[in-house]
Structure formats: C-alpha cells, structure tokens
Amino acid sequence: MSYLPRSSLVTLGMLLIFAYVIYEAAGKPMQAKLFPMTVGILGLVLISIQLGRELWTAWRTDETQADRKTNQQDGAADFAITDVEKSRIGRLRAAEQFCWLAGLLLGLFLIGFYISVPLMVGLYLWRHQERPMFVIAMSAGVAAVVWGVFNQLLNLPFPQGLILEWLS
C-alpha cells in the first residue's frame, strides 16, 4: 500500500506553493502581505483538507480495488473524459475557455485590473446571451466591488496596465 497516491502529487505541489506564498509574505509590511497572506492561508487550508481526503481514501481502499478502478477509467486517475469532451464541440468549448482566460490575462497586462475584470464579466455574460440590463448591472457591480475593496478598503492600488500608462 502506497502512502501517497500518484494522483495526490498535484495536491501536494499546490500545498507547497501555498506554504511558500505564506512564507514569503510573512516578512513584508502589512499592506504588502495582506492579499498574499489571505489567499495563501485560505488556499493552504482548502488544499490541506483535500490532501487529507485523498490520503484517507487511499488508506481505506485496498490496492487491488484501486488498480481495478484506475484501469476501468483508461488511465485517468482523477476523472474520465467523456465522448462529448473528445468531440469537435468539446474541443471548441475547451479552446473557448482557454481564450477567455488568456484574454483576461492579456487585459490585466494591457489595461489593468480595475478595467479588465468588469469588462471580462460583461463580455462573458454578453457572449452567453444574458439580458443587456443584467450585463450592465453585473459589470457595474463587479467594478464597484473591485474598486471599493482593493483600492478604497484595502488600499492596494493595482498597476494601470501598459496602454493606460502610455496614454498618461
């Protein structure tokens, strides 16, 4: 019986990343460490719970049952890929989600956090054919929360982005 299943290596890696974030943020001034410490502690707690669940399941499961289960899933340790996900539509959906994420990251780099996040929310809702008033309300609400929490409450002004820096 193995003490750490192969599928738990990713979880252990994430646990180490969150622990490193907390370690690095610990010596910083309060304003600089508030955000990384909050995310790091929450992530560490959740990942620890997940790792505990995985280890508990591995210890309770007989090796032969675990091997049978893995072989039934055609090598997928955590989940099985369905036929829909293997189809052209499934690949297009996965590519679209990747493009949304890449677009958000590019927007953060080019126009900054305060504009990119509400814009991403609005465009995503509009793409999925939500009502225009709902799209506007959600985008404005996200903009107010993002600006209010990070800029006003926590006093963590994020960089503007390259395009806005070039224009000003």
Automatic annotation (TrEMBL):
InterPro entries: DUF1468 (IPR009936)
Ranges for domain DUF1468: 12-159
Transmembrane intervals: 6-23, 35-52, 100-126, 133-150
Keywords, comma-separated and alphabetical: Membrane, Transmembrane, Transmembrane helix
Protein name according to UniProt: DUF1468 domain-containing protein
Organism: Marinobacter algicola DG893
